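Dear colleagues,

I hope this message finds you well. In preparation for our joint manuscript, I am sending the histidine kinase (Sphingomonas panacis) sequence together with its predicted structure, so that both groups work from identical material. I would be grateful if you could confirm receipt.
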Amino acid sequence: MRLLPRSLSGRLLATAAVTIAIALALAAAAIGHVLERFVMSGLDDRLDAQIAVVARAVGPDGTLDAAKAIDLPPFDQPGSGWAWEVIGPARTLRSASLRGADLPLPRDDGPPWPRERVRERPHPLEGTDASGLRIHYRIMRLPTLRGDALVVAAGPRAIVDRPIRAAMLPLLLSVLLLGGFLAVALVVQLRIGLRPLAKVRERVAEVRAGRVRHITVEEPTELLPLVAELNALIDANEAAVARARGHVANLAHGLKTPLATLKLDLAGGDARLRGQVERMERQIRHHLGRARAAEPGAAAARVPLPPHLNDLIAAMARIHADRAIVPLVDLAPDLEVRCDSQDLDEMLGNLLDNAWRHARTQVRVSAHAAERVMRIEIADDGPGMTPAQIAEITRGRRLDERGEGHGFGLAISRELAELHGGTLELGSSAAAGLTVVLSLPGGSA
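The corresponding structure tokens are as follows:
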């Protein structure tokens, strides 16, 4: 069972809410206790004042002088709940409010109270009267020559309970309002405090998209070590990819010369072996392209599209001059894409070469920007591809593995497009051939 939410803000909110609730409960209890002590001290002061007055009636020899036992208001009012009693060695004096009756004293298994627990200074006791009402007592012992005299003063406990109950409702409302204010303040604090994390996330997304190379955050200072480590990780990853690209390039260049020699030696010889050599050359070009596209920031540069397309179209016209294919080009002069220029040439070269090899009379090339995406359409009027073949290409099947076809160049172009955040879609053209749509991030993305 998960006790804390998964998110950082949820955990901070939950722990802070529990802490605030506990703190408010403790504060309410402490304030209530202080309020009770304050009200109780007022009651004790009134009872102690009466005890001080009637204590003068106790003589050193244990005799009681009724003339000195004066009733302070409201001890002189019968039924008021306020009363006092002096229990001497020989007789007992009572307040006028008792009308001669005994003061209901708190009992403890037999005697009214254990006399050894009664001190020579007033101390409190709690009890109830005959009707069950709570009474607060103050009791003091006075040593005399004939034994101890006990002075008792009592008042209704409701004197304390009523103001406390009356004060608790506003106190609880105040605590609830304070809790609500603290909750709002906590939410605002979390939003402000966690906002730099969202900024770091945006900077990381920009690095991943290739728009910037490093994360630039100046505050808060607690995040600067994390940002420094992320930038160091980006640099280390870029260096590792650069080394890997260098190794791949060195391997590819090391294989190019022997393959070219082998290809010349096989000229006019076994067609199957020549096909295998050409396949090896395409594999080398393919992995070189992937190594270039994997470089961090490879898609950061804006590349003008028309010059690349026009140069490649002119090259295809020369390479396939014997086929007399007519190119129909529809390009605006200011189109741009975010892509490595070599990867762009690799993708467009593969797609145009496929179109020229399979077209009957013409190849249509157009491009337009839509929602920060550049869509490049290359359509031929050749035999096209069946839906089953398109599905195989979409799943990654290379039709070139079974002979002459579209698949290998399309697979390379699709992988390079995906590495740059783009897509490659296949469909039927209006001239019954194949239409390839290459989508790449636009220059304004």
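For the figure legend, we might mention the following. Helices lie at 8-54, 158-209, 224-265, 271-293, 305-319, 341-358, 387-394, 407-419. DSSP finds eight helices and twelve strands in the chain.

With kind regards,
E.M.
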